[in-house]
Design a protein that fits this description.
Length: 286
Amino acid sequence: MKFSLIMATLGRTDEIIILLDSLLSQSYKNFELIIIDQNDDDQVEKVCDQYKDKLNLHYYRCDKKGLSLGRNIGLEHTSGDIIAFPDDDCEYETDTLKKTAEFFEKNPHYSFYTCNTKEKNGNNAALETGKNDCDIGIFNFLSIGISFTIFVRSETFAGFAFDEQLGVGAAFGSAEESDLLLYLIKNKKKGKYHAGHYIYHPGKTEIPQRVYSYSMGFGALFKKALFVYRLYPMFFIFLYRIFRNIVKLSLRPGDKIARALVAGRLSGFLQYKPLAKVKKIENHSY
């Protein structure tokens, strides 16, 4: 079983070295790393040159910016059985790929897998995740799947492309990975979350501009869930979350983060325009 790891990168150099070193230390060796460099300089390429004889590494340059765009380019070059999307600032445990491969080998009826995340030297997690192993569905996917923890069988990508309106660098600055999970759920593919398996990722300091951009993606995702995937329970989940956020804001009217969150989610829902209908997954692999 071979892994294809797609990493789109912009604005980072030193952090990439941490990821590459963690890949060098993997106990499971059957993988390729596909790097989509969206920087304007050659610093990432220089780093890749240092590892090209140590890793099965494929480097591609992309002048346009956008995380979803970069991942779509990466999908065109995969040759593996399992596809994943490590961030350029995450770090795998030495047995991350081994544990994931064992899961897929033992569970052929599962199409995707997610795991937990935490800061390596702190408690500020990138996502507030679940504490117990569970199957993934419409009512829990938002809290147990962030992009760098998602692994998917390659054949389930037939008909799918990342929505280039979503994700960092796009108008709606997040939720591209949640869109992938919704696509899989819509197509009745089974997924499993493992709370005891970790991929490290530095925590982020919340600032209003970032919260607003990410929240725009969240609002856009719910609109797409309704009008493209026709997953109508998502509307009630959206209403519940918006109501909860508005209540918190009413209790703390001066909280800029809470205001950015509410404004972003509502703006994302209102402004997003779905471009295509969901395609049914076919029996095909890249």
